[in-house]
Each structure stands twice: as structure tokens, then as C-alpha cells.
Amino acid sequence: MSATLPCIPGRMSQTSIERLREYLAQLPPQAQALLMREFERALERGQDTAVATLVLEQLRKIVRRTEADESAPPRTDDLSRLLFQALEPFLVEAGVPTRVGQIRRSSLHPIWQWLGRDGAPDKVNEFHAALARMPADSAGQVEALASRLQAVAADAIFELTGPGGGDKSRALARVGPPNVIEDLYSIGAVLQVREAIASLNEKLPRALRAFGDSQIASVTSALNIPVLQTPQMLPFALSIVVQRMTAPWQIIRLAIKIAASDDEIRVAATPYGVAVTIALHDLSCVAATLRMDIKRGHFDNIAGNLKALHDGARGLRTELDLRNDSAWGKQLTSIRADISNALQSEIDSVPGRVRRILRQRPEKDIPPGARIDSTEVEETVALIDFVATCRNYASELAINEVTLRTYSDLQQYVERSTEQLVQSLRAADQKVRTYRQQQVQAAIRFCQVLFGDDYASLMSRAAENAATGERKSSRAS
Questions:
Q1: What separation in angstroms does the CA of 286 have from each of 227, 289, 305, 339?
Q2: Domain final residue, candidates 23, 40, 70
């Protein structure tokens, strides 16, 4: 295509993401669809995963918003998207570990190719022709076509994966590798009960903020659809519930309610025990995201992820009677240990970074033109704020001692260093004055996080007075 994407750096600001979204929204639907296909294939090949994931996320937001707008024309340019739209709530991107109730997005393309090649080629060609003949304002006809296509695909998948018919290993191998075959079974099952899933979507509350007894009763009633109560489909039904929840870990309350007990053995004995497996998996994914954000120095979402991990770990420990030597108990212990190790390592590094910036070196050791890197200062500000945020969740995440010690050390060092640096402005040699002023400005930024705006303003005025007093003294002499 002739249009090219704007430059996408490894770490984008919110403004840059908004510009990217505006650019993508201006593209015609055909160009958006082409971009989505190309980036999906890039993810399958493992190429440019960071860029592809970012662009796909923004494109899907645009497409969903467009489809939700009743005045917008229906999407009629991509038959495969019509087929797989029923799977959207269950799709996960490449590189993300999957659990029960989820399907890899990367599996859709090879399954679509198989459907057009071996599964139901005549029907697919027929639907392509029918879609091409539809006018732009035929939303109802497109929806009916999508339903027929999904039914055909479900039948074709069941014919291949269902019982009977002898050895099907060679035919299955033509679909794709084992992970695609695994998703093929799930896709066929979901498409077969698509109407029940749609009914569940309608019955569920739009948002589950406080998952108490009344909401548990409402969700339990909505889930009472026989075809969704099978071992294969219940995880998908629960995945839809989880997406409505403000605190996803609370899905375990359904399992506890069904078991009428918080004992993990009794909970695991019910079909709803899979809810605990889902909660633990999703908690481990949040932990993995937290570790990656820390490693990359991305602290924008740290507070939200820390709260989710804190609340989830505490909820699982207090609302379920987990044994330390059970599979669930070991998994939760492992998650907490991983979080603790990642946080402690980063917390331990913060004082050293602060000292490098604020250390009052002798003037003879400061080279001419030396400057403080403003980017490093802001990164260090983010790290200090990170330590401050960790204090709120330290006890549950097993980092209480290191967090409190580090935060106290930072307060003492920054307070003492700021006062010393302000005093140094009074007698600073002109050659190093700019460097000293930049150190003071960095110290005041640190004070803002550690002590608040009032104290930072006080030190800022003291710095101005010190600089002004030194200049007056120089003129008088």
C-alpha cells in the first residue's frame, strides 16, 4: 500500500500514541484491514512484535469503535473477520501464555486458510461472492451472512475433530502445528455455541465492580445455560465474566459459592474450580507485565499493576484455604516470590541513582560544561515514586523491610543533600555554577516526590535566595 506508518519508537508517550491513532483512523477501511493482516502475519513470524502489537491494538480500538457507531457502514471487506468476530473476547496476542478459555490470535490465519482450502472451500467461495454483491448499508444481511459462515465453519471443524472417520492425523497436520490444532478444537466448540455465548453476554451485568452476593447470584443465573456448563465451554463462559470484573481475581468467589466451602479440595472438585486456575494464571500475567515494565523503565502502569497483584494475592490467600504444598498453593507462592524479587532488585538500585546525581563533588572534579542529564533526572523521579508506591503494597508482596528502609534512606539523603547544594550556590565558582544549579533543580524534583509540593517550593525559594545573595555579594565586591 502507498501509505506508510509514522515512526514508532520503542517507548511511546501518550501523545505519540494519540497521533498514531489519529493517523490510523484516517486510513480507509481497506487500508486498515490490510495493515491488520500484515501485522498479524508479522506477529506469527515473530517480527517487530512490539511495533505490531502496538499498531494492532490501536487498529482494533478504531475498528470496534467504528462498528459500534450505528451510522457507520458495516465492514464488508474481510470475510475472515466476520467469521472470527465471535471469538474476539477470547483472543490473546502472540507471545502471551494462554490458559483455558483463551485462543491464540495467531491461529486464526492458518485455520482460515485451511477452511478455504480443505474445510469448506465451496461455501467460502460462495460467501465471498455474496459479500461482494451486498450494498454498503446492508448491516443486517452482513450479520446473517456471518452467522451462516460461522455455522459452516463449526460443522467443518467438528467433522475434522469429532469422533469417527478413522485416523485424522494427516488431515489435522494440514491445518497447522500442534498449538493451532489445539485452538482448532476450541474455535469449533465456541462457534457451535455462539448463540449461547451471545445470550450470556446479554444477561451479564455490564460491570461487576463489587462482586458480592447479589452479583454472584446474578452471574450464576446467567451462566445457567447447559451448553456452557461443559468442561470445555465453562472456561470460555468464565472468561467473559472476568472481562466484566473490576477485580478479576474475585472470579474465585463463584467457585467458593458453588462448592459451599473455601477448602481448596472441595472447590477443586467442582467444575467451577477452573475459576481458581484462571485467577492464578491471570495474576501471573500481571506479574510478568510488571517485571517487563520495570525492566524497560516503564512506570506509567506500575501503581495499577501493583494494586492488582496485591489485592489478588491477598484475596486468594484469605478467601481460599490453600495448602502450601498443593498445586494452587505452590503457584501463588511462586508468583509472590517472583514479584518480590523483581521489586526488591529495582528498589535496591534507586539510592545509587539518586547519589550519582546529587553527589557534591569538589569543584576541581567538575569538568567545564558539565551538565545533569534531564532524562536521567526524570527517570530517577519515576523510580522514587515507584518506591513510594511500593510502600502501599509492601507487606502482601513480601518487600516490607527493603521498601521502608530504602524510602527512609532516600528521605534522609535527599533532605541533607538539598540543603547542602543550596548552600553551595552561595559560593559556587562561576565555572561550575550551571552544574550546581542543575543539581539543585534535580534535588527539588526529588523533594517534590518525597516530601510534597510545599517543601519543594520552600527549597526552591531558598535556592533562589542563595543565588540572588551570591550575585549581590559579587556586585558589591
A1: 31, 5, 6, 10
A2: 70
- 109, part of any domain: yes
The pTM is what?
0.77
Same domain as 216, residue 187: no
Contact 185, 154 (CB under 8 A): no
Place of cell 459462515: 149
Q: In total, how many domains does the chain have? A: 4
Q: What are φ and ψ of residue 13, in 5° steps?
A: -80, 170
Range of the domain at 152: 73-192
Among residues 192, 226, 247, the one where a domain terminates is 192
Q: How far is CA 2 from CA 31, 208, 243, 378, in A?
A: 9, 45, 38, 39
- Pick from 6-10, 19-23, 24-28, 342-346 the range whose average pLDDT is largest: 342-346
Comparing CA positions, the residue from 57, 286, 85 lying closest to residue 201 is 85
Q: What is the pLDDT of residues 411-443, one digit of tens each?
A: 999 999 999 999 988 877 788 888 989 999 999
Give the contacts of 124 (CB within 8 A, at least 6 positions apart): 79, 115, 116, 149, 152
Say whether both 216 and 312 belong to one domain. Answer: yes
Nearest to 33 by CA among 92, 91, 83, 79: 79
Tell me which amino acid residue 432 is. V
User: CA-to-CA distance for 142 and 145, rounded, in angstroms?
Assistant: 5
CA–CA dist 249, 55 (Å, integer): 29
Residue 333 covered by a domain = no
Using alpha carbons, list the distances in angstroms from residue 464 to 196, 344, 426, 427, 474: 69, 37, 10, 14, 15
Whose cell is 502489537? That residue is 53
Whether residue 127 lies inside any domain: the answer is yes
- Strand pairing report for 91-92 and 103-104: parallel
Q: How far apart are CA 91 and CA 243, in angstroms?
A: 12
Residues 10, 15, 17, 20, CA torsion sign: negative
